[in-house]
Amino acid sequence: MDPSKIREKIGRFRILIIGRANAGKTTVLQRVCNTRDNPEIYNSAGEKIDLAVLRASRERGLHDIDNEIVFRSHPGLNFIFHDSRGFEAGGESEFNTVKAFIASRSKEAKLKDQLHVIWYCIPMDEATRSFTAAENKFFSECDTGSVPVIVLFTKFDALYDVAYTQLKTEGISRKDARKLTPKRAEETFANGPQLKFLKDVRKPPPCHVCLPNMDKDDADCGPLIECTAGALDDEMMKQLFVSTQQAILENCMKCAVERTLPGHFASAETTMAEGHQKIIGTLAACFPHILPVSVSILLRAQAMLIEVVDHC
Question: Mean pLDDT, the chain, as a whole number?
Answer without folding.
Answer: 78
